[in-house]
Amino acid sequence: MTKIDLHVHTCYSSDSNTSLTAIAEQCRRASVDGVAITDHNCIEGALRLREMGTVRVIVGEEIRTACGELIGLFLERLIPKGLSPMETIRLVREQGGLVCVPHPLGRRPFSSRNSLGTVADGHYFPSKPVLSRNSLLTDEILGQVDMVEVMNARTAFESTWIACRHLADMNELIPCAGSDAHTLREIGRATVEIAEFSDAQTFMAAMRKARLSGVKSSMFIHFASAYAKVLRSKAC
Ligand SMILES: [Zn+2]
Q1: Cα 69 to averaged position of ligand 1 atoms, centre (Å)
Q2: What fold is seen in the domain 2-230?
């Protein structure tokens, strides 16, 4: 079995100062075997860390589409930002990559627990505020993606994790987990434990039996990303 954090940012994202050289040591400390590096609209950091060979890396990108964010995994080339979700998904697939919807119901610390939607007769119905916040939650788009991030350690409330799990189940999508680490110490706070894999196909097969675990990060961690944005250092 191998333990992977599927959502990690580095200093190649505009809101993180995590240096590539520190990541392997933090993974050892957190007993994490590998990371998906999912920088915002950038894969350079992921490619470099993979080349360094200090820790297992899945090259990913958190891509800003015209309607919200999607994560592409197992990429080799940059996916441009600003395209439609369907075009973005097509470009990820063209590379043999996988598509995930990160934090589908948001991570806002101050949103109401009751605003996420309801579950009735085994069906999950996102509320209107949720649907207006994330226009990726359409049948058309959800019908084309592989995974939904049901555990994002930066989410404010655990009730959001439960609602995300319903969303994944109702759309027959594989649930996944990631810390969304923008600081070093967050790495490993949400992970998947899966059988060994060698590529996107074997990864997907392993994900069907994944064990997800996570602990929420403090709400105040969001200030760290804002701080990183302001004091952004180019030196990685
Ligand atoms: Zn992220």
Answers
A1: 9
A2: TIM Barrel (3.20.20)
